[in-house]
């Protein structure tokens, strides 16, 4: 397969960052936005299903009421509410002129972390696509769950920026391609700000530690930077999709990508593809609780045949309920897996280090021998 041949790609997610949606003075860049809308309409008319992840609400809101960027979270949430309608009116008018219907979808971390809501969301998005509608998705900043981040600073939130949101939507919807358009040309082999010889890496086969270390800095307008884009690439490639980071300011960039032009950086699907629930456990959930285990248990889990038994557990960190996804740490405190716990943190504390045969006697009930059943564990 030609890695840049998208003729067979049926479902595509396109992420538009704040910096490509506005011009230097902070106003909506209408010529650019309309050119995206034109190219996306062409894709839809050729039979492709397109979902858009859009940023820009906070930036447009700030511009509208004339406030500078600040750390005031509530003001930012208010600006998101103001800017969101402006954003949607542009998409609505633009797509209307091509006879294409759009739908607004605003999401929070909980819509992914809660499996029922996750599955509902998938059904609705699938139905919208069947109806020929283009879903326009953004993080619902007005109500996003910032509490999680402040309650436990080491909590792992499913997404806090639109790069990761776009990866979660792409994986949830089994998209063939995630195209991230931002104001960078792609992934460089070293920091282009310090090194004039920096070169774009055209193809990444595997998002290794080495690749992750190439990320630096946050982009000026949006919340993400290269790091969040590479995290997105990890998710997308692990579920078997391709991802491209390209400069959204290049003329007709979407059209060019779909004609196979070598733009930006393309990330190719990983060999060990994750599907369904395993993918959800790994990437979509909000994680507070952690279970630390000994090396013997780690070895058994890494072979991907055993469940996590109470005897291998050494420490329980933070509180969690039965059914919550928890992080599994090794003796060096490194997270290497995630899974759904069959017992609450209180019960885990009572049974850790003990044999599964003792669970009934200690707790007065026993639903499972394992604290986490094999099928509910994903190795990272
Ligand atoms: N949801 C934010 C907005 O609409 C953008 C978040 C991000 O850039 O990652 O402004």
CATH superfamily of the largest domain: Acetylglutamate kinase-like
Describe the largest sheet.
8 strands, mixed
| Total strand segments | 13
Strand content: 15-25%
Alpha plus pi helix count: 15
What features would you describe in this structure?
It contains 15 helices and 13 strands. The protein has helices spanning about 20, 30-45, 55-65, 75-95, 110-115, 115-130, 145-150, 160-170, 210, 225-240, 255-260, 275-285, 295-300, 345-350, 360-365; strands spanning about 10-15, 50-55, 100-105, 135-140, 175-180, 205, 240-245, 265, 290-295, 315, 325-330, 335-340, 375-380. β11 and β12 (about 335-340) form a beta hairpin. α2 (about 30-45) packs across α4 (about 75-95) and α3 crosses α4 (about 75-95). It is globular and about 70 Å long. The site of glutamic acid has 15 residues, from α3 and β4.
Secondary structure blueprint with pairings:
Layout: E1 11-16, H1 18-21, H2 30-45, E2 49-54, H3 57-65, H4 73-96, E3 102-107, H5 110-113, H6 115-130, E4 134-139, H7 146-151, H8 162-172, E5 177-182, E6 203-204, H9 209-212, H10 226-238, E7 242-247, H11 253-258, E8 265-267, H12 276-284, E9 290-293, H13 295-302, E10 313-317, E11 325-329, E12 335-340, H14 345-351, H15 359-363, E13 377-379
Helix pairs in contact: 2-4, 3-4, 8-10
């Amino acid at each position: 397969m030609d890695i840049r041949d998208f003729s067979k790609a049926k479902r595509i997610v396109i992420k538009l960052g704040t910096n490509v949606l506005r011009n230097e003075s902070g106003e909506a860049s209408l010529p650019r936005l309309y050119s995206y809308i034109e190219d996306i309409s062409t894709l839809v008319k050729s039979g492709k299903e397109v979902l858009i992840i859009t940023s820009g609400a906070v930036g447009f809101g700030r511009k509208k009421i004339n406030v500078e960027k600040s750390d005031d979270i509530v003001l930012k949430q208010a600006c998101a509410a103001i800017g969101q309608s402006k954003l949607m009116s542009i998409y609505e008018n633009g797509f209307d002129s091509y006879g294409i219907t759009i739908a607004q979808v605003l999401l929070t971390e909980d819509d992914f972390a809660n499996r029922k809501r996750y599955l509902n969301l998938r059904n609705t998005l699938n139905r919208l696509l069947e109806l020929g509608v283009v879903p326009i998705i953004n993080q619902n900043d007005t109500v996003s769950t910032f509490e999680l981040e402040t309650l436990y600073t080491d909590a792992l939130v499913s997404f806090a920026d639109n790069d990761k949101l776009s990866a979660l939507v792409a994986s949830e919807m089994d998209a063939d391609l995630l195209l991230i358009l931002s104001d960078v040309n792609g992934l460089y082999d070293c920091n282009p700000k310090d090194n004039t010889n920096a070169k774009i890496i055209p193809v990444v086969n595997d998002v290794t530690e080495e690749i992750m270390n190439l990320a630096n800095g946050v982009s000026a307008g949006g919340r993400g930077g290269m790091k969040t884009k590479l995290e997105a690439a990890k998710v997308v490639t692990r579920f078997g999709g391709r991802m491209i980071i390209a400069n959204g300011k290049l003329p007709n960039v979407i059209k060019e990508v779909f004609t196979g032009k070598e733009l930006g950086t393309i990330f190719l699907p990983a060999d060990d593809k994750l599907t369904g629930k395993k993918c959800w456990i790994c990437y979509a959930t909000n994680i507070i609780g952690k279970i630390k285990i000994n090396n013997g248990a780690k070895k058994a889990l890494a072979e991907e045949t055993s469940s996590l038994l109470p005897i291998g557990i050494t420490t329980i960190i933070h509180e969690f309920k039965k059914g919550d996804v928890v992080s599994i740490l090794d003796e060096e405190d490194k997270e290497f897996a995630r899974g759904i716990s069959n017992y609450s943190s209180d019960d885990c504390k009572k049974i850790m280090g003990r044999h599964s045969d003792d669970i009934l006697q200690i707790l007065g009930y026993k639903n499972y021998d394992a604290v986490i059943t094999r099928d509910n564990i994903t190795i990272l």
